[in-house]
Amino acid sequence: MKLQTKLLRVLQEREITRVGGTESIKIDARVVVSTNEKLEEIIRQNRFRADLYYRLNVFPIKLPSLRERREDIPDLAAAFLAKFNLLYNKNKSFSSSVLTALMNYEWPGNVRELENIIECKS
């Protein structure tokens, strides 16, 4: 909660004070935030400031989890495989059974898990 107060001040006043400093410095910055939590519930539990939530929630973007958008898995997997083929100087590809397995998996770790699995198998 203490850090949330400081962040709210930065967002509202558009200024910061360096650690150990005494002068405020004007800033021009945009902040992009992300969470997998339901902030409305956390606000009700008094674990997140409502005023900070409304300050941050200017342009909300809802991105469903990977398991809710399985149609993206082949493209993401191909992009990650191309990245790791280049990085590790390989020329690997996916069989249809691997793509089927990827599509059927629940992905509790979301896109990061997909990327990590492809990297460790590259």
Can you describe what's shown?
There is one protein chain. The protein is mostly helical. It has 6 helices and 2 strands. The chain has helices at 2-13, 39-44, 50-56, 73-87, 96-104, 110-121, and strands at residues 15-17, 24-26. Strands 1-2 form a two-stranded antiparallel sheet. The protein is elongated and about 60 Å long. 2% of the residues are buried.
Short structural summary:
The chain has helices spanning 2-13, 39-44, 50-56, 73-87, 96-104, 110-121, and strands spanning 15-17, 24-26. The chain has 122 residues and is mainly alpha-helical.
Arithmetic mean of pLDDT:
94
Q: How much of the sequence is in beta strands?
A: under 5%
Q: What is the makeup of the main sheet?
A: 2 strands, antiparallel
Computed Rg: 21 Å
- Estimate the global geometry from the Cα principal axes: elongated
End-to-end C-alpha gap? 42 Å
Number of helical segments? 6
Extended strand count: 2
What multimeric state do the chains show? single chain
Unreliable residue stretches = none
Helix and strand element order: HEEHHHHH
Class from helix and strand fractions: mainly alpha
Helix content, binned percent? 40-55%
Physical arrangement of strands within the biggest beta sheet:
1-2
